[in-house]
Specification:
The complex is a heterodimer of chains A (506) and B (164). Chain A is of the alpha+beta class. Chain A contains 18 helices and 22 strands. Chain B has two domains: 2-82, Glycoprotein, Type 4 Pilin (2-Layer Sandwich), CATH 3.30.700.30; 96-163, OB fold (Dihydrolipoamide Acetyltransferase, E2P). In chain B, the strands form three sheets. In chain B, strands 1-2-3-4-5-6-7-8 form an eight-stranded antiparallel beta barrel. In chain B, a hairpin with a 2-residue loop joins strand 3 (22-27) and strand 4 (30-40). Classes of the chains: A alpha+beta (506), B mainly beta (164).
C-alpha cells in the first residue's frame, strides 16, 4: 500500500480524498494556489506545498509544478479528484514516467475515452447504442449546416474535450447555428484549450442516468448501479440520486452490462462512469464515459455500502476488487444536493465572498462533504461548488424527508447559496412523484414560487431585529456609513460584554 | 426602548422593555412576551409566547438581513430619537444602469453605444468562476453609454452600461 498520496485538487473533493487517506493510514500531501492558503484541504493536510498564482494554469492545472511537489514530498501516488487534471491523459502519462502511481485509469484508456468523438468511434465498434450524430468534430460552419440538416433539428453542439456543460449549446433551428457554433467553440477553447465541437441529435427532455463501474488491474470489472442525474441547470448537475426511480432490476442489469462492455473495450481500470441519455420509452443511449471519480459518487457509496475512494486507492496499489458482481447489493435510497455559491435571486450568478456564519446540519441519514468553514473567503477563481449535502433513507420518501429536515438546519451567511433551490425542489409535486427529466429545473424555475402569505415570520423578524439592536448585536440603521467592515458589531465587543449580555437576558 | 423597524418594505413600530429577565414587546400596539438568548454571534434563539424560533442575522454589502426558518427578510432598524430619516436614492427616470452582479471579467460586449435593445436581450458576457454569464438588459431601450471594455475586470455593482 502507498505511504503518501499527493492530492492534486482543492475544495470539497480534496478534503474527501484526504479523509480517505487518513482512514487508510496514508499521509496526505496537498497543493494550493495563492488564494487557497487558508482553504480547508490545506488546514487538514499532513504536508502542503504552494503552487503559485490563482489561475488554474499556474496552479492546479500545472503538470510540471505538481510533479515537482510529488518528487519533493516523496509521494508514491497522486489522486487527481475531479475536474482539473483528472481526465488529462498527458498528466497520467507524465505521472507514470515520473514513477508516481496515478490513481485512475491509464493514459491510453483516457485517450480512448477523453475525447468524446474518439470514444464514440471506439464504442461503435463495441456495439454500444448511440444517439445519431457525428463521431468527429465539424470542420466548418458549412459542414455543421449539412450535418444538422441530415440528422434534423433540434441538435446539440458539444465540445469534444468538454465536461460540466461548458462548450455546449442547444440549437433549435438553422438561424441560431452560426452564433451557437461560435459560442461553443470559444467556450471550448477557453475552458479546455481545444475548440473541437461535434453535433448530435438533441433528445428533448431525456433523463440523464449514469452507471458507476469499477475495474481492477487484474481484469475484473463490476458495475455498482446507476445514478439519476436529470436535474440540471445549464447542463450542470444540481441534484443526483441513486437508484433512479425508473430503473428496475432488469434495466439496471442491461445498462450495467453495456457499461462494463464500454469499460472493457477501453481496457479501463479504476473508477469510472458511463453516462446514458434515456428517452421517454426508456431506451438508453451511450453519451460518454467519465474517466474519473464523479462529484456525485457519494450517493452510490451510500446505497452500495462501499467507499469508492478507498477502492480507488486499493486498485491503484494493485489490489484485486474485494467483490464480484453477485456480491454487489444496493440498499435504500440516497440523494445529493450540490451546494453552490450562487445567487438564486440573481439568475444563479456565482457569489464569492466571506462566509460570516455557518450552521451545518447533522443527524440520522445525513452526510456532508464540504470544503468550506465559517470565516473562509470563497475565492472567485474556481468552480462555485461549496459542499454536497447527501441524505440517505430506507426509501426515496425517507431520503427526501431527511434532506428537507437537514436543509431547515442548514445556514450559510455572508454569501448567497442555492440552498433555497433545494427546499423548492424537494417540495415540488413532480419531483416527489419522480417525474424527472433534464428540462425539469428550467420548467420549475419558470413557474413563480408560491410565497407564503403568513405574516407571522415577518413579525418575528421585526421583533428579532429590535432584540438584536437592543443587545448591541447589530448596528441600528442598516446600510449607513462605513460600508462593509465584514465584522458584525457583536464580534468587536469583548467576550466579557457578550457573556454579561447573555446573562442579562435570562 | 423604541425602534422603527422595516421588514421587507413594511414598517413596524416596536417597543421593547426588559421585564424580569424577559422582554415585554409591543409590536404595532400588540403585546407579546418575548424571551431571547443570543446563542452565538448572529444567532438568536427566540421564544414568542411558547413558540420557538431561531433567527439568523446576516450583513451583506452593508445591508442587513434576518432569516426566520428558510425565509430571508431585508431589515432596517432605526432609533426614532436619532431622527435620521434616510431615503433610498430614487431610480433615474427612464435610464437603467446595468451592473455586474459579481466580480469577474468582461469577456464580450454584445452591444454598442446607440444600439436598440429589447427587454432581456444580452448586453455583455461576464466570466467568473469559469462560467460565462450573459448580462441582460432590464428594459427595452437604447444603449446610452458603455462603461467597461472587453477584457476589463469588474467588481460587483460596477456599472457596465446604461440603457435608456
Amino acid at each position: 500500500m502507498f505511504k503518501k498520496i499527493l492530492i492534486a485538487n482543492r475544495g470539497e473533493i480534496a478534503v474527501r480524498v484526504l479523509r480517505a487517506c487518513h482512514e487508510m493510514g496514508i499521509a496526505a500531501v496537498v497543493v494550493y494556489s495563492d488564494v487557497d492558503r487558508a482553504a480547508l484541504h490545506v488546514r487538514k493536510a499532513d504536508e502542503a506545498y504552494p503552487l503559485g498564482a490563482a489561475a488554474a494554469s499556474e496552479s492546479y492545472l500545472n503538470i510540471g509544478k505538481i510533479l515537482d511537489v510529488a518528487r519533493r514530498s516523496g509521494a508514491d501516488a497522486i489522486h487527481p479528484g475531479y475536474g482539473f487534471l483528472s481526465e488529462n491523459a498527458k498528466f497520467a502519462q507524465a505521472c507514470r514516467d515520473a514513477g508516481v502511481k496515478f490513481i485512475g485509469p491509464t493514459a491510453a484508456a483516457m485517450d480512448a475515452m477523453g475525447s468524446k468523438t474518439r470514444a464514440r468511434q471506439a464504442m461503435e465498434k463495441a456495439g454500444v447504442p448511440f444517439v445519431p450524430g457525428t463521431s468527429r468534430g465539424v470542420e466548418s460552419f458549412e459542414e455543421a449546416e449539412q450535418v444538422a440538416a441530415r440528422i434534423g433539428y433540434p441538435v446539440m453542439l458539444k465540445a469534444a474535450a468538454g465536461g460540466g456543460g461548458k462548450g455546449m449549446r442547444l440549437v433549435h433551428g438553422p438561424a441560431q447555428l452560426k452564433s451557437s457554433l461560435e459560442a461553443a467553440r470559444s467556450e471550448a477553447q477557453s475552458s479546455f484549450g481545444d475548440d473541437e465541437v461535434y453535433i448530435e441529435k438533441a433528445i428533448i427532455n431525456p433523463r440523464h442516468i449514469e452507471m458507476q463501474v469499477l475495474a481492477d488491474e487484474h481484469g475484473h470489472t463490476v458495475y455498482l448501479g446507476e445514478r439519476e442525474c436529470s436535474l440540471q441547470r445549464r447542463h450542470q448537475k444540481v441534484l443526483e440520486e441513486a437508484p433512479s426511480p425508473i430503473v428496475d432490476a432488469e434495466m439496471r442489469r442491461r445498462m450495467g452490462e453495456v457499461a462494463v462492455r464500454v469499460a472493457r473495450a477501453a481496457d479501463y481500470t479504476n473508477a469510472g462512469t458511463v453516462e446514458f441519455l434515456v428517452d421517454q420509452q426508456k431506451n438508453f443511449y451511450f453519451l460518454e464515459m467519465n474517466t474519473r471519480l464523479q462529484v456525485e459518487h457519494p450517493v452510490t457509496e451510500l446505497v452500495a455500502g462501499l467507499d469508492l475512494v478507498h477502492l480507488q486507492i486499493g486498485i491503484a496499489a494493485g489490489e484485486k476488487l474485494p467483490c464480484t458482481q453477485e456480491d454487489v447489493r444496493l440498499r435504500g435510497h440516497a440523494i445529493e444536493c450540490r451546494i453552490y455559491a450562487e445567487d438564486p435571486d440573481n439568475n444563479y450568478f456565482p457569489s464569492p465572498g466571506e462566509i460570516t456564519l455557518l450552521l451545518e446540519p447533522s443527524g440520522p441519514g445525513i452526510r456532508q462533504d464540504s470544503g468550506m468553514y465559517e470565516g473562509w473567503k470563497v475565492p472567485l477563481d474556481y468552480d462555485p461548488l461549496l459542499a454536497k449535502l447527501i441524505g440517505y433513507g430506507t426509501d426515496r420518501e425517507q431520503a427526501i424527508s431527511r434532506l428537507r429536515r437537514a436543509l431547515s438546519e442548514y445556514f450559510v451567511g455572508g454569501i448567497k447559496t442555492n440552498l433555497s433551490l433545494f427546499r423548492r425542489i424537494l417540495g415540488d409535486a413532480d419531483f416527489l412523484s419522480a417525474k424527472l427529466d433534464t428540462g425539469f429545473l428550467d420548467r420549475m424555475l419558470k413557474r413563480t414560487e408560491d410565497k407564503s402569505v403568513d405574516s407571522r415570520p415577518a413579525e418575528v423578524a421585526a421583533i428579532a431585529a429590535g432584540v438584536f439592536a437592543a443587545l448591541g448585536a447589530t448596528v441600528p440603521g442598516a446600510g449607513n456609513g462605513g460600508g462593509n467592515s465584514g465584522l458584525p458589531a457583536d464580534k468587536v465587543t469583548s467576550n466579557w460584554t457578550s457573556a454579561s449580555r447573555r446573562e442579562a437576558l435570562r | 426602548m423604541l425602534f422603527e423597524v422595516t421588514i421587507d418594505g413594511r414598517n413596524y413600530r416596536l417597543k421593547l422593555d426588559r421585564n424580569d429577565g424577559r422582554w415585554r414587546c409591543h409590536l404595532d400596539g400588540r403585546e407579546f412576551e418575548v424571551d431571547a438568548i443570543l446563542v452565538r454571534p448572529d444567532v438568536l434563539s427566540l421564544r414568542v409566547g411558547n413558540t420557538a424560533y431561531e433567527v439568523k442575522s446576516e450583513r451583506v454589502a452593508g445591508d442587513l438581513y434576518l432569516w426566520v426558518g428558510g425565509t430571508r427578510f431585508g431589515a432596517e432598524v432605526r432609533d426614532p430619537r436619532s431622527l435620521r430619516g434616510r431615503t433610498r436614492a430614487g431610480e433615474d427616470h427612464g435610464a437603467k444602469k446595468i451592473v455586474a452582479p459579481m466580480p469577474g471579467k468582461v469577456v464580450r460586449l454584445l452591444v454598442r453605444d446607440g444600439d436598440e435593445v429589447e427587454l432581456g436581450s444580452g448586453v455583455a458576457v461576464v466570466e467568473a468562476m469559469k462560467m460565462q454569464n450573459e448580462i441582460k438588459s432590464p428594459k427595452k431601450g437604447t444603449v446610452r453609454k458603455i462603461l467597461k471594455s472587453e477584457g476589463e475586470a469588474v467588481n460587483a455593482g460596477d456599472v457596465l452600461a446604461i440603457v435608456e
